[in-house]
Amino acid sequence: MPKFKAREIDPLVMQSSGDIGVPRVSKPAVTEFHEFHLATQDRAASKPAATPAKQHTAAFKARPVPETIYSAGKIICLLSL
To answer: Are 13 and 21 spatial neighbours (Cβ–Cβ below 8 Å)?
Structure first.
Protein backbone atom coordinates (compact mmCIF):
# COMPACT_ATOMS: atom_id res chain seq x y z
CA MET A 1 0.00 0.00 0.00
CA PRO A 2 1.48 3.39 -0.94
CA LYS A 3 2.16 5.86 1.86
CA PHE A 4 -0.44 8.65 2.18
CA LYS A 5 0.85 12.13 1.42
CA ALA A 6 -1.30 15.20 1.98
CA ARG A 7 -0.88 18.41 0.04
CA GLU A 8 0.12 21.59 1.87
CA ILE A 9 -2.62 23.94 3.08
CA ASP A 10 -2.81 27.32 1.44
CA PRO A 11 -1.89 29.93 4.14
CA LEU A 12 -4.73 32.17 2.90
CA VAL A 13 -7.26 29.57 4.07
CA MET A 14 -5.96 29.78 7.65
CA GLN A 15 -5.72 33.60 7.66
CA SER A 16 -9.05 34.37 6.04
CA SER A 17 -12.07 35.20 8.18
CA GLY A 18 -14.42 32.69 6.59
CA ASP A 19 -14.16 33.92 3.02
CA ILE A 20 -12.11 30.88 2.03
CA GLY A 21 -12.38 27.53 3.78
CA VAL A 22 -14.02 27.01 7.17
CA PRO A 23 -15.87 30.02 8.64
CA ARG A 24 -14.72 31.35 12.01
CA VAL A 25 -17.18 30.91 14.83
CA SER A 26 -17.29 33.55 17.54
CA LYS A 27 -17.30 32.35 21.13
CA PRO A 28 -20.52 32.95 23.06
CA ALA A 29 -20.50 35.15 26.15
CA VAL A 30 -19.93 33.51 29.51
CA THR A 31 -23.14 32.56 31.30
CA GLU A 32 -23.88 34.64 34.38
CA PHE A 33 -25.41 33.05 37.45
CA HIS A 34 -28.75 34.38 38.66
CA GLU A 35 -30.01 33.21 42.04
CA PHE A 36 -33.30 31.36 41.78
CA HIS A 37 -36.24 31.56 44.14
CA LEU A 38 -38.46 28.57 44.83
CA ALA A 39 -42.03 29.01 46.08
CA THR A 40 -41.72 25.89 48.26
CA GLN A 41 -39.31 27.74 50.54
CA ASP A 42 -41.97 30.42 51.20
CA ARG A 43 -44.67 27.84 51.88
CA ALA A 44 -42.41 25.93 54.27
CA ALA A 45 -41.57 29.11 56.18
CA SER A 46 -45.24 30.08 56.61
CA LYS A 47 -46.37 26.70 58.05
CA PRO A 48 -45.51 25.63 61.61
CA ALA A 49 -42.98 22.84 61.96
CA ALA A 50 -44.64 19.45 62.07
CA THR A 51 -43.76 16.96 64.76
CA PRO A 52 -42.19 13.81 63.38
CA ALA A 53 -44.65 10.94 63.10
CA LYS A 54 -44.01 7.78 65.04
CA GLN A 55 -42.75 5.02 62.85
CA HIS A 56 -44.37 1.66 63.41
CA THR A 57 -41.80 -1.08 63.48
CA ALA A 58 -43.09 -4.62 63.11
CA ALA A 59 -41.75 -7.20 65.53
CA PHE A 60 -39.39 -9.66 63.89
CA LYS A 61 -40.14 -13.34 64.34
CA ALA A 62 -37.88 -15.95 62.77
CA ARG A 63 -39.34 -19.08 61.25
CA PRO A 64 -38.35 -22.43 62.74
CA VAL A 65 -35.49 -24.29 61.05
CA PRO A 66 -36.60 -27.46 59.17
CA GLU A 67 -35.64 -30.67 60.94
CA THR A 68 -34.26 -32.17 57.70
CA ILE A 69 -31.21 -29.93 57.93
CA TYR A 70 -30.04 -31.62 61.12
CA SER A 71 -30.86 -35.24 60.21
CA ALA A 72 -28.39 -37.93 58.96
CA GLY A 73 -25.40 -35.56 58.76
CA LYS A 74 -26.40 -34.19 55.39
CA ILE A 75 -25.16 -30.72 54.49
CA ILE A 76 -27.49 -28.51 52.51
CA CYS A 77 -26.13 -25.33 50.99
CA LEU A 78 -28.52 -22.58 50.09
CA LEU A 79 -27.18 -20.09 47.60
CA SER A 80 -28.99 -16.92 46.78
CA LEU A 81 -28.02 -15.27 43.52
So the answer is: yes
Q: What is the pTM of this model?
A: 0.23
Please give the Cα distance from 46 to 17 (Å, whole number): 59
- Give one word for 56, left, alpha or beta, with left for phi > 0 and alpha for psi -120 to 50: beta
Per-position DSSP letters for 45-79, written without gaps between them: HHSPPPPPPPPP-PPP-PPPPPGGGTGGG------
Distance of CA 21 to the CA centre of its chain: 40
Q: How high does pLDDT run on average in the chain?
A: 77
Task: Give the angle subtended at the CA of 51 by the CAs of 50 and 56, to the nearest 5°.
Answer: 125
Exposure on the CB side of residue 57, measured as CA atoms within 13 A: 3
